[in-house]
Amino acid sequence: METDPSLGFGFLVGALHRRLRAEWAERLRHLDLTPPAALALRVLHRHPGASLREVARVAGSEPINISKVLERLAVGGLVLVEPSPRDRRANSYQLTAEGEQLLLRLEEAMLGFAKWLRENSGPVDLETLKSTLGELLQALPPHPKS
After folding, report:
1. Domain map (residue ranges) of the chain
2. FRET partner for 56 with CA separation of 20 to 30 A, picked from 1, 48, 95, 117?
3. What is the pTM of this model?
């Protein structure tokens, strides 16, 4: 059954999110990564030494969910966990050399996904759409659990 756009904007955005996430997950399969793991790698690349709470905040996720992702990445040798130099109660996380190498392959997958999006979005300017969605996200009140 096809998605019915007349059901409303939120429904349409939700359906799009689920389908895009499934497509992205399929494109990550050959890297043995999930979308949350790929996101965590990207966050740590941009914020080396970040704490669990910092990674969760940047990723827009709950710390408990990110902790499970980071734990799997650490067990896989992709992330190094050390006591935080800023807060003795927290850990800091950073990519290992293996994690940085995987990140390069992840970036290639991202470029391929972006190309696919451009080819399948018709006349829509994706940068404008991305900017508009970001503005809408910022205008909404924070999620009660954040």
Report:
1. 32-120
2. 117
3. 0.83
